[in-house]
Amino acid sequence: MSIIGQETFSFKDMTLVKRNKLGDKVPLELFRAIRLIGMYEGLPMHGKATTLTIGRTIGEKIEATSVNELLKKFEQLKIGIPSVIEETGKGFRVAIEDCFCEGLPVHAGNLVCDLEGAIFEGALSKILNKKVSVKEVKCNVNGDERCEYEVRFLG
Ligand SMILES: [Zn+2]
């Protein structure tokens, strides 16, 4: 169920492609342009509230019934290759290999993968049927060795 507005598209709809010449792929360059130039640079406050809404709505529609399935889906969608690197009773940490931001110039102080974290958050809260918060704690663009999310179970 989407947070805002009427339900119009499902994830399944997104796979219905009928482009004879250009096929079902768009370059990473375009995805980055939308994410970083359009959203991160173009929206006020780097689009913070907006990315959260967008990400959660997308996440809730991802068809995954377990955390493992969700991790696989992240790789399949080529957002990055996630792996759980630390678990506590209160949550866990996810490291992302080959994140979409890998290779971009470093701009210290900027963590740019919040939308992808919000997608994870939306999907995870649906799978676990409880509130979770997913916070980006490391990012390649910030100069960190990789992107990382901290997942916390709330309530
Ligand atoms: Zn990243």
UniProtKB/TrEMBL annotation:
<dbReference type="InterPro" id="IPR004096">
    <property type="entry name" value="V4R"/>
</dbReference>
<feature type="domain" description="4-vinyl reductase 4VR">
    <location>
        <begin position="91"/>
        <end position="153"/>
    </location>
</feature>
<dbReference type="Pfam" id="PF02830">
    <property type="entry name" value="V4R"/>
</dbReference>
<dbReference type="InterPro" id="IPR024096">
    <property type="entry name" value="NO_sig/Golgi_transp_ligand-bd"/>
</dbReference>
<protein>
    <submittedName>
        <fullName>4-vinyl reductase</fullName>
    </submittedName>
</protein>
